[in-house]
Amino acid sequence: MKILAFTDIHADPHAFKILKMKAEKEKPDLLVCCGDISNFGMDIDIAVKKILELKLKTLLIPGNHESVNEVKLVAQKNSSIINLHNDFFKFKEFVFYGYGTGGFSMHDEKFERLVPKIISKIPKGKKLIFITHAPFYNTKLDKLGSSHHGNKSTRVFVERVKPILSLCGHFHENEKKEDKIKGCRVLNPGNDGMIINL
After folding, report:
1. pLDDT digits 0-9 by tens, 69-80
2. CA end-to-end span of the chain, whole Å?
3. Contact by Cβ (8 Å): 42, 14
């Protein structure tokens, strides 16, 4: 499987142009977005129009610039966009799980309460890919200056369930950076996207 992942595009026409070129050249199976397609929701319709031009099924979670309801509504209006927030999407031998919003807190108690239920719903025999907006704590993806500012709750989840891949965004300073958590590849694909072969 080949995916084209991106994050924090904020309706940027130049980034969408590059994303479209990558999609046309690489022909991925899916688009995966780690949130922040808009600027506080104001230009979400413009961003959605650009995503639809790529003519690919798109897995989307809200970042800190969109609400859960905004992403839900976008998916209800457009069949090629899947609202992945606190939900699963199966594709071939893989299963995606997404948890959006946030980005500024080191702990997410709501997410922590959901973890037992999430784990119970992971389909057996499927390779898990975890999509979130906040970067994972104590990685190259959350380091700003000399300190780490990522989310500890999602890091513990990755350590526990061991996805094959975990994607995040939020810190534009760390676009394209990659790291590992207990063997799981974690990366920030950037606003113009990255092709990932699985």
Report:
1. 999 999 999 999
2. 5
3. no
Determine the Cα–Cα distance for residues 35 and 131; give it in Å rounded to an integer.
Answer: 9
Q: 2-197: what fold?
A: Purple Acid Phosphatase; chain A, domain 2 (3.60.21)
Cβ neighbours, 10 Å, residue 106: 14
Residue 104 has a pLDDT of 87
Looking from the CA of 175 toward its CB, the CA atoms found within 13 Å total 14
pLDDT tens profile 131-168 = 999 999 999 999 999 999 999 999 999 999 999 999 99
- Asked if 90 contacts 111 with a C-beta cutoff of 8 angstroms, the reply is no
Query: Cα–Cα distance between 23 and 13 in angstroms, integer?
Result: 15
DSSP 8-state secondary structure symbol assigned to residue 198: -
Strands 58-60 and 81-83, by their bridges, are: parallel
Count CA atoms within 13 Å of residue 154 on its CB side.
Answer: 34
